[in-house]
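Task: sequence in, structure out. Protein: DUF1223 domain-containing protein.
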Amino acid sequence: MIKKAIILSFTFFALSLYTLYTANKIAPEVAKKNNPVVLELFTSQGCSSCPPADALLDQVKSDYPEEVIALSYHVDYWNYIGWEDPFSDHAFTEKQKAYAHKFDQRNIYTPQMVVNGKEHFVGSNRLILQSKIQEHTFDSSAKLVEICETTLSDGVLSFTYNFITAPDQKWIRALLVIDERETMVNRGENRNRKLKNSNIVVAEKRTDLRLRKNEVSLKVPDLVQQNDGLTLVVIVENQDRDILGAAQKRIVR
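Result:
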């Protein structure tokens, strides 16, 4: 009787340790079969609260290269303070406003992190981010889309894609992303700081799937430098901007 109790206690202890371990770790063998979690960080080099969120996004990019697609959108409403963010785009401000309308927000803010287009929080909150990555990884459906052939010619990136699972939704987003860039900020709230930004979105196109075949092209903007590492990201979403699937692929130049 005593031996049985010891064995049961040891078994319970082992299971508890395993549960604790898996609760704090994303299982790559599960994630690779599923759609990656898409993180969209709205940020600005003119915002003093943004560098911690930028650093956190960079860490997530390194820690979860298969499980997460991390994206950095630079908005333009901080530019008036004195520093014009070279990656800022008014289209990204409008994109954030569209999310605000979806989430019933009265105001937009930075740094804001949006997870799979479904929920948001302050982008520098490490604990919430870790929790949401785990939650959305294990809730993810089977992989939906893959990127096939890519061609870069005369400043235009063209590519084809293929659906692994037939989509019920009608929208696809194509994004061109700079892997990372360091900028010396001379004015504004972050003056005299060298900032590192990762996975910077520099071009984006949203396409109605009913209007095209499985081929899309993106113009490479002039701000892309020859030594920049580039990644192509494809996102499938519904009319409400819920992200249902995504894929990414390095661009060889």
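The chain is about 25% helix and 35% strand.
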